[in-house]
Amino acid sequence: MAHDTRKEIPVRDVERFQALALRMADEARTRLLALQKSGFEVQRKPDGSYVTSADFQTEQALRAMVEKEFPQHGVVGEEFPAHLPEAEFQWIFDPVDGTEDFVTGIPNFGTIIGLHFRGTPVVGAIDVPMLDVRVHAAYGLGTFRGQQRLRLPDLESGTSPALTRVMLAARANFAKHGDWGDTHFDRLTRAYPNHRIYRTCYAHCCAAFGQTDVMVEYGNKIWDLAAAQILLEEAGGRYHVIQRLDAPGGAVLAAVFGKPKAVADVIALLA
Amino acid sequence: MAHDTRKEIPVRDVERFQALALRMADEARTRLLALQKSGFEVQRKPDGSYVTSADFQTEQALRAMVEKEFPQHGVVGEEFPAHLPEAEFQWIFDPVDGTEDFVTGIPNFGTIIGLHFRGTPVVGAIDVPMLDVRVHAAYGLGTFRGQQRLRLPDLESGTSPALTRVMLAARANFAKHGDWGDTHFDRLTRAYPNHRIYRTCYAHCCAAFGQTDVMVEYGNKIWDLAAAQILLEEAGGRYHVIQRLDAPGGAVLAAVFGKPKAVADVIALLA
Predict the structure, then answer these.
(1) Residues of B in contact with A198 (CB under 8 A)
(2) What is B5-149's CATH superfamily?
(3) What is the ipTM of this complex?
């Protein structure tokens, strides 16, 4: 981009933001693991998807941490109205991404945390508590799994589509875009038969770790993708928004991210 | 069935077979976790799929356990030729199901172990070491997760296809059947948009636990499905073979298993 406004942010501030994101991830992990043991209340939203007491309680706890430490920052979460929506800094998170897995006990659910400055990500973290997986990144400071800095290799030249490892959203997410989304699901699964569908942010971790060559996300709200861009870009990967649609309750996004060559191949396939 | 020949097997023998299956699962777990730490050799098979030193070493170790304890039993594994293929009792296993996940460190790989008597399953076990997941079953003795006996509830009456939880094989597996397999992948993912694709036997555990309502497996060899039938049937679920094709290197199977009503719905969809 012509001018990256993130360069205006002092590194010391980026480090403070990152420290808060990691404390938020710790808080979420502690709560979600405890709730998996103690039990929680489950309800259905009007669209039939689950929401639990864990979603509400965890989002409130994370909101309180931001409001205490950075009262001038905005907050966008899945379950409550936006706080200070005009602020330059916006904390965007999904306390329980993969609520259906949280309810059934499949260990792929996690917490997504991002801080964006004028719409551009500065800090990102994903925590998958039952898998003991954590990945975090901050602008200019790199992407880390624990203490280990991640440097994503590119897709090996000559890797056939049949051997390329692809993760993607379920058809339910593609269908939210209208008919063309459905077509894209078919085109992707035909071109890349070696695919996995997890329906949680664990797939974003796999993209940052290079365990999948590319991840294709459809029908996402902003909190679902709050961390992916900075996690991938700071690891040497690429993040590309395929489409952004305005919808009631906020924009719906489609994005592809992972090893640069694999991302370029998917963009070409869907063009 | 008219006459279940498994009733001829003394319960004491079933218990001994089950005990061996569990020791084999322990042995596989110990080896696979150690190899994840120490590292292992990786090669590509002619079809591009991975095979590792872990596959060979683990299969040899499990074979030796069977040959020592039940020298009159046959053994069928993925990596070595069949042993005593005419024996009534056949131990059938896949030491590392999900080798690609084993190589990339995604924790969904596991070991599948089954004992069949005249082609019908008597004992089954799946161990997913990195997730600390184990499920086992024996004819007449039930399905267990650790000490807990599993009783699968049926699909709630009135559950819409959109909310039904489906796991299925990737299109790569469906395509092994020829064109109609591809059509079945489309039909399933359209009818059941809330689907997950793991590409390992962890999905079979999820079916036994009721974490998915149904699992649809295509393009499988006999060792991939060595445990699923007994795990599901002894838990009160249903297992149904959709198709069995003769192919070089052994039959290729498609099967659906899970909550009885969900299995019936999938059979009707694909009829």
Answers:
(1) 196, 198
(2) Fructose-1,6-Bisphosphatase, subunit A, domain 1 (3.30.540.10)
(3) 0.96
